[in-house]
Specification:
By secondary structure, the protein is of the alpha/beta class. The chain has 11 helices and 15 strands. It has helices at about 35-50, 70-85, 95-110, 140-150, 165-180, 195-205, 220-230, 250-255, 275-285, 290-310, 315-320; strands at about 20-25, 60-65, 90, 115, 130-135, 155-160, 185-190, 210-215, 235-240, 265, 325-330, 330-335, 345, 355-360, 360-370. An 8-stranded mixed β-sheet has the order 2-1-3-4-5-13-12-11, with helices on both faces. Strand 12 and strand 13 form a beta hairpin. Helix 1 (about 35-50) packs parallel to helix 10 (about 290-310), helix 4 (about 140-150) packs across helix 5 and helix 10 (about 290-310) crosses helix 11. The two termini are about 30 Å apart.
Length: about 375
Amino acid sequence: MHTPPPSPPGAERTDRSSVRIGALVPLTRPGWVEAGQHLLAGLELAVGEVNDTGGIDGRPLELVVRDTAADPERAAAAVDELAGLGVTALVGEYHSVVARSAASRADALGLPYLCSSAVLDALTEQPTQWVARLSPPQSRGWRIYADFLLGAGHRHIAVAAQPSVYWATGTGILREHLAERGGTVVELDMSVLGPAAVCDALVENRATALLLLVGQPEPALSIVTAVRRDRRLAETLIGAPAGQPEFSAWAASLGVDGAAIPFLRYLPERLGPLGARVGSALRARLAAAPSFVAFEGYDTVLVLAEALRSHGPDRARVAEAWPRVEVEGTRGTIRFTRVPGISVWQWARTPVQVVDRDPARPDHFRVLHSG
């Protein structure tokens, strides 16, 4: 942990107009645009509600949005720009590698960052006081997913993976957790294999499950279609721990072929009154069923607003608030602690489910496992 350099002159706003919050969101390709839209909808809904109830000590929250387009360098540049504009804190981001870039830059600048939806364990190289996170670390979520696979009788797993720190880390978590319980993981390199070759490799390796550690829509959609059409693989489970089937574009593109593909979702089994109310408001805003990412966005602003109200809109004081705030969010009571192996303040009790789309009703989800 280190002491950040002093803020440049004029970086902190001293007027009584608005409390500015920088929001990092993927809104254009190659970013996961639908996820970004849901994240932004949650952020904006909560900001509107905070302002409708008096804002922060009479000052409205103002969201200053920057599109990361899933580009780590673009995100780091956005952090610099937003810091110069005098934002009090940063929120958002969906892509883990992008969030890591933003978190490292925010840490260096002494700018509080509440990460909404990225799961890579190592968001910063060293422990930091400036960054907190709502989404569960990848090591927790993907171990829960591995437990689901084992419980369903799958011990010989194949992963179709593209080159990425995120996918490689996920593969390592799965391999270690499964190996301890007699399972195996074979990696299929999607930088050299096509969908037909994936099918052949599944047969050759006698894998009973294939996990999609690849981008959406492609090559994920083509792989699903190829496996579903291959009679040799009629009993093969397709899984997507990163959550590709969560969004409506998946069901629209694949129909019933996109069902029965388990993925991780960060929602409780039942939403309480606040979650139900927010879910209805998000549905109206999105004109679609809200994903867990939209709830993450809403909860982010809820937590940050509490930190601002209790500690004031000063960057250092907001960072000091992370271990002290306790907020009833849409998905449970949110409080941050230090978790072994995680460098940021972490919500340790984020709900984790393994769910899939029901083949009989692809617009409905079935909860298969909870952790």
